[in-house]
Amino acid sequence: MKRETEILILGAGASGLMLTALLERDDYLIVDNNPKVGSKILVSGGGKCNITNGNLKAKNYVAEQRFVRNVLKRFDNYDLLEWLQRRGLKPIVRKNHQYFCENSAKELVNLLKKEINPKNILLNCEVKEVKKIERGFEVVTSRGAIFAKKVVLATGGLSFPKLGATSIGYEVAKSFGHKVSTLSAGLVGFTVQPEEFFFKSLSGISTEVKIRVGEKEIDGSLLFTHKGVSGPAVLNASLYWQKGKIAIDFIPSVNLEAVKSSKKNISRVLGLPNRVAKAFLENLDVEDRACRELSRDEWKKIDRLKSYSFAPAGTFGYSKAEVTKGGVVVDEIDASDMMSKKVKNLYFIGEVLDVTGELGGYNFQWAFSSAYVCAKGLNR
Ligand SMILES: Cc1cc2nc3c(=O)[nH]c(=O)nc-3n(C[C@H](O)[C@H](O)[C@H](O)COP(=O)(O)OP(=O)(O)OC[C@H]3O[C@@H](n4cnc5c(N)ncnc54)[C@H](O)[C@@H]3O)c2cc1C
C-alpha cells in the first residue's frame, strides 16, 4: 500500500507523541517500531514517570547552553504542568522538586494518545532509511515506503534497545551531512576494577556521598550493586565522566579532625552504614578500635574516605542507561522550529539531539519542550 502524508513523525516516544498531540492539523502520520506508543514513558520513574522538575535551568543539561535556553523558555516546566493540568493530569512532587504521575505513567501516555487521531498512528513499523526526493522524502520502512513533505526525527537514543531503541536517528542525520557528537551511555552505573571489587559485597546498600568528576561536584546517594556502583549521584556523575578517575567523598558530613579524640570506635563515627564502614576499614587495613587510639598513619589511610579516587572500569552500558550522551550537533539545528539548517523540512527533536539532562525529569522536559517548538513551526 502506498502511503503519503504531509508530515511524518518517526518515533512515538515522549517527543514524537507530544509533537503530534500539539499539531493543529490532521495531515500527519506517526510511526514506531514498537507494538504500542510511549514505551519508555511507561517504564520510567519506577512506572510513575518523572515528568519534569520544579528547578529547571539550562545548566541541568550537558549541552550547548544557549540552544537549550532558547528552546526551554518557549515551553518550560510551568507551561508543561499547566498544559497537563488543563487536560486532567495532576502531577505530584515526590522528592527534590521532581514531578511524577500520581498513580501510573499510563496516565501521561493515555493523555497524549487522546490528543492524537488513532488513524494516524502506524505501529510495528521499523524505519530503515530516509531519502530525499524531489517532492520531499521517501522513508523506507518494514511496512513499505512512506512519502512525506516533512519528516521529524523523534527516534530517541540508543539506551534500552529492548524498548525499541535503534541508531536510525543518528544514521539519517549523518546521511544528510549532519555532525553527530560521540555517543555513550549516560545516567548509568559504573563497573569497577579489581581494587574496588569489595564494593560488590555491599550490594544493595546505599549511602550519601559527594562525587567529583573533573570540575563537577555531585551530591546525592550512591548504591553499591553486584556490578559496581549506581544510585542518583553516580548516574549524574556518568554524564560528566569520559575515562579516568573520579573521586568520592564517602563521609561528606564528617569532620575527621573533630572525631580524632573520640572514645568511640572509628566505624561508629564515620556516619556510614555499619557494613560499609567495616568493609572500607578492612580494605584500608585499619583495625576498628577507639578513634583516640588510632595512629597518625591510620588517620592518613582513613583520610582517603574523604576523597576516594579510582578509575571505573566502564559503565553498565546501554542496556541499563537511561539516556544516550551526545547526538546530533545542535549548531546545525534551528532553535526556532527544530528544523535542520542543512535540509529543509527535516526536523530533529528529543534525545536524538546532543542535549542530555541530569536525573530528575529533565530529559522528558527536553523531549516535550523541543516537541512544542517544532509543533509551533509545523502549525505555522
Ligand atoms: C528506564 C528509563 C527510565 C527513565 N526515566 C526517566 C524519567 O523518569 N524522567 C526523565 O526525564 N527521563 C527518563 N528517562 C529518559 C527518557 O525516557 C528519554 O530521554 C525520553 O524518552 C526521550 O524521548 P524521545 O522522544 O527523544 O525518545 P523515546 O521516548 O526513546 O522515543 C523514541 C521512539 O522511537 C522509536 N524508534 C527508534 N528507532 C526506530 C526505528 N528504527 N523505527 C521506528 N521507530 C523507532 C522507539 O521505539 C521509541 O518509541 C528514562 C529512560 C529509561 C530508559
Structure, explained:
This protein has 2 domains: 236 residues, FAD/NAD(P)-binding domain (3-Layer(bba) Sandwich); 126 residues, Elongation Factor Tu (Ef-tu), domain 3, CATH 2.40.30. 26% of the residues lie in helices and 24% in strands. The protein is built from 12 helices and 21 strands. Strands 1, 2, 7, 8, 9, 10 and 20 form a 7-stranded mixed sheet that branches. Strands 17-16-13-14-15-12-18 form a 7-stranded antiparallel sheet, with helices on one face. The longest helix is centred in the last third of the chain and has 18 residues. The mean pLDDT is 97. It binds flavin-adenine dinucleotide. Flavin-adenine dinucleotide binds next to helix 1, helix 2 and helix 12.
In short, what is this structure?
The protein is α+β, with helices and mostly antiparallel strands. Helices cover 26% and strands 24% of the residues.
| Rounded radius of gyration (Å) | 24 Å
The total domain count is 2
Uncertain segments of ≥5 residues (pLDDT<50)?
Answer: none
How far apart, in Å, are the first and last alpha carbons?
30 Å
User: Which CATH architecture of the largest domain is right?
Assistant: 3-Layer(bba) Sandwich
Strand percent estimate: 15-25%
The percent range for helix content is: 25-40%
CATH topology of the largest domain: FAD/NAD(P)-binding domain
CATH level 1 name of the largest domain? Alpha Beta
Structural class: alpha+beta
Q: Report the average pLDDT across residues.
A: 97
